[in-house]
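Please produce the structure of this protein holding geranylgeranyl diphosphate.
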Amino acid sequence: MTATEKLSEYAQLTERALNGYFPLETLPQQRTAEAARYSLLGGGKRLRPALLMEFCRLCGGSAEQALPFACALEMIHTYSLIHDDLPCMDDDDLRRGRLTCHKAFGEWTALLAGDALLNRAYEVMGQALCDTKSPHDAARALAYISRCAGIYGMIGGQTMDLQMEEGALESKYLAEMVALKTGALLSAACVGGCLLAGAPDILCQAAETYARSVGLAFQIRDDVLDVEGSEQVLGKTTGSDARDGKITYVTALGLEGCRRKIDELTKEALCAAKQFEDHDFLCELASWLAGRTH
Ligand code: GRG
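Below is the modeled complex.
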């Protein structure tokens, strides 16, 4: 099975479960529930859930045991996309090939849909903690994922990004900003999966290295795609970094420099992946992501 076939298998598993966590139902608070469902179930590569389930499996756990955490992580990721697209942040009209949440439902509904996804994520992980036979491992995973999503992780990185855009933070913080904004949720997936399976520190460290390398390469590729990607394939607006005068890896290294850096990081990721016995999917995924078009 190729990496993209396996990714799509994990994506189907995730989407079936996400459907159950945000069912179609008639509620008085329907509008926010519908907006959350619109963004959560409207496409996306489901990369973070796949990584979480794969790392859990590689460390002796099962994909099923990891599924609630994988879904929770996708809810956190989706909330971050909804909020990032808002007029007070990136102000984007397109996401995952459709109108952004606030364009489709209005601003306050999009804000609340993001909040609803974030809270549901913690509810789902809390419930999984109550249901599991290994609550200590699940609690460690929950604590790790929470840290990665918060001020010492993704929210911290988003803050740095916006400060940088306002000229209030120097460009020397670019790598640190990306490590938090993009890298932290990938670490949540990779290390979170290991922790759930009760993996030893050495494997958690290898997962962290893999996530760090893939995360930075992923962001650099994102910066390149904003310049030379296709809006139709990407499902979002391109050229917005240049429009907003943003400091990105393209402005820092140039397109050729970006390609070299992505290759170097992908080699580091492959090296880290090889510390796991059955590493084919991790290796193929890292290589596929290095050249991704969406
Ligand atoms: C609002 C707290 C808060 C954080 C926002 C996610 C994010 C942080 C910003 C979005 C802009 C951006 C370039 C983020 C870097 C990470 C990234 C490339 C996200 C897109 O992830 P994919 O490609 O998206 O996995 P899909 O749609 O496939 O899930």
